[in-house]
Amino acid sequence: MSLPAKMNAMVLEGHGGLDQLVWHEDWPVPVPTEGEVLIKVGACGLNNTDVNTRSGWYSKTVSDATTGGAYEEVDESDPTWGGRPITFPRIQGADAVGVVVGLGNGAPQNLLGQRVLVDCWLRDWSDPKNRDKTGYFGSECDGGYAQYTKVDAKNVVAINSSLSDAELATFSCSYTTAEGMLSRAAVGADDTVLITGASGGVGSALIQLAKRRGATVIGLASISKHEIVKELGADVVLERAPEDLKAALNSAIGSQTVSVVADIVGGDHWPSLIDALERGGRYTCSGAIAGPIVDFDLRTFYLRDLTFTGSTVVAPHIFGDLVGYIEREEIRPVLAATYPLKDFHAAQTAFIDKKHAGNIVVVP
């Protein structure tokens, strides 16, 4: 196949506001090296990691909620998910879907021409469970906000699905994040799971994946999004931040407590989430879009025998499991909107505004 030398790409040129994302129409097409594949991108989903990395929100110098805007001060030593500097320029975009159009030496020949999903987690494949040796596609290497991208062949899985590229691009980041959270919390059929931010990408994934495990699901979402949250399978939907969460739970399910809280929001409402956990309950977290600094009463934690788990790097098997769920139609995409890649600023603005349900996707 004849490939172009140049491509369109949305390139992040530094930490800051949307102005740091610059459109290029003459960016070099990447060349796959040993063991890598070249992918012609069909679609790429947006996620919070892109926004937080661009703005530098992960830095410990930042204590605000995620806004997507520039911060006055960002410590250049810890502005990414892994607490390390990022190299610019960088093409972001973790949730890439496309067709393999080129192979580096040693890459499996059978991948050529296959439609694939990209596993976001970059690993040392000689030590794949070592979290200290992980990176993220679109952060530690260039990602999918371009016409072409490359990645280790071990980070792609061919998929057999009637879903469109845009629909498939809603899965990788959000659903592996959600499955990682539920796995850490050992969620099963006997659990009642309270999910914050239930209408977003990770929230909608948490609903479907918790229901897949047989759990009872309670979603917290703004009233305008209650219908879609119900359609995704939530047994109960409550206001995003009830004034009295325990009373709202008691009215809805006849109990003031739940066994699991799956949280991606944090913020001022956080203490009420912990108060709503039953004795021996589990809290799992993979985000803090409403604010990372919370009021934490250690007495609640230890006197109630609670278990807290942070969840970022997922187990290596989770991505393959997710592809199986998709192919067997055990979960479904929630595609909120599709934008041309050139209109990325508008797409990310809509993503930050959080007026949508599910995921937003760009297409080259």
From TrEMBL:
PROSITE patterns in the record: QOR_ZETA_CRYSTAL
Keywords recorded for this protein, A-Z: NADP, Oxidoreductase
Domain Enoyl reductase (ER): residue ranges: 16-362
Keyword NAD (UniProt): no
Transmembrane regions listed in the UniProt entry: none
InterPro entries noted in UniProt: ADH-like_C (IPR013149), ADH-like_N (IPR013154), ER (IPR020843), GroES-like_sf (IPR011032), NAD(P)-bd_dom_sf (IPR036291), Quin_OxRdtase/zeta-crystal_CS (IPR002364)
Gene3D superfamilies: Medium-chain alcohol dehydrogenases, catalytic domain, NAD(P)-binding Rossmann-like Domain
Protein name as it appears in the record: Alcohol dehydrogenase family protein
